[in-house]
Amino acid sequence: MLRTDYRWQLADDTWLAQRAYRAPGLLVGHARTRGFQAQELGGDRRESPGAFVFIAVSGELHVSTRGGEHIVRAGEALRAPAAGTALVGTSPHVELVVVLDRHAEAAPVERRSVPLETFGGDPLGWLTRSDGGWLHEGRSAPGAWLDPARLRGARGHVPAPGARRLARLVSAHIGALDRYPGVDDLADALGMSERRASEALSAYFRRYHASFGGWRSYLSTVRVELALSAIRQRALPPKRLAARLGYRKVTSLYHALERRGFPVRAL
Fold first, then answer.
1. β 68-73/86-90 pair status
2. DSSP β-bridge partners for residue 44
3. Taking Cα atoms as reference points, which of 150, 157, 120, 156 lies closest to residue 53?
4. Checking DSSP bridges between strand 68-73 and strand 60-65, what pairing results, if any?
5. Which of 60, 71, 123, 221 is exposed most, by the fewest CB atoms within 10 A?
6. Which range, 91-95, 126-130, 143-147, has the best average confidence (pLDDT)?
7. Is 180 helix (H, G, I), strand (E, B) or coil?
C-alpha cells in the first residue's frame, strides 16, 4: 500500500500525527492527537459508495451520519455508510483508526466493542489478522464489516514509483504550512511545469485521497480543519495561528473560516 505520514505541531502541547495506508478504493488511517479536537481532514459528505469503520483506541470520536450524531468511546467501533458520514470532532487527546472501503456494502449504522488488547499500534496488521473475527468473519458471514481478503490484497498493492514520490513531497510540504507551499513549489521539486505538476497531483489525489480533487483543495481544507481544531482549544492567538498555517494575513484566515460557516466573532 501507499503509506503517507503527516505531523502538524502548532505549539509544544498541540499536535496531530496521522499515518495512512492507501490503495485504490481503500484507506486505513491511524491518528494520534494532543491538544486537538481532531477532525477528518476532508470529511466525505457526497453521494459516495462504500462504508466507514471508526475505531476509538483512546478518547472519544464524534461521528456525524445522515441518521444523527454518534459518540464512539475507547474500545468501541462504529460502522456507517460512506455517503453523508464524517468525523466531525474528537476529545482533545485521542488515538483512532478509520477505515474507508469504497467496495463495502453501505449497511446501516452499527456499533461494536473491539479487543484493544490485541491492537499493538499496528492497525493494518491488526485488521488483517485471522483473529479479527469481531470485524470480519468472512465476506459472506452475517454481520461481517470488512473483507479480510480485500484488506490483505490491498496491503500487497504496489504503487507506482511516481505515486510514492508525490506522497513524500505532499507530506513534506503539507507539514510546513508556514512556508506557504504552493503548486509552484511542488513543480520545482518535481522538475515539471506548474501545469504538468497540477495534472499529476490531481491524478494522485483522485486515486489515493478519495475526498480531494487536487493539491489546492487539499491544502485549503487542511488549513481550515487545523484552524478550527486549534481555535476550539485556544492553542494560539489568531495572528500566530494564521502565520503557522500559512495565511499571509489574519484576514485571510478569517475569510477562510467564514466560507466554512464559522463565525469570526468566536475568535
1. unpaired
2. 85
3. 150
4. antiparallel
5. 71
6. 91-95
7. coil
Residues 171 and 250 in one domain: yes
DSSP 199-222: HHHHHHHHHH-TT-SSHHHHHHHH
CA separation for the pair 42, 211 (Å, rounded): 6
Q: Which domain holds residue 197?
A: 161-266
- pLDDT tens by residue, 2-40: 988 888 887 777 788 889 899 888 889 999 988 766 554
As a whole number, mean pLDDT of residues 195-205 equals 92
The cell for 257 is: 473560516
Amino acid making up residue 74: A
Residue 110 pLDDT: 92
* Those residues with Cβ within 8 angstroms of residue 2's Cβ, 6 or more apart along the chain or in another chain: 21, 22, 23, 157, 159, 163, 164, 167, 208
Q: Do 198 and 170 fall within a single domain?
A: yes
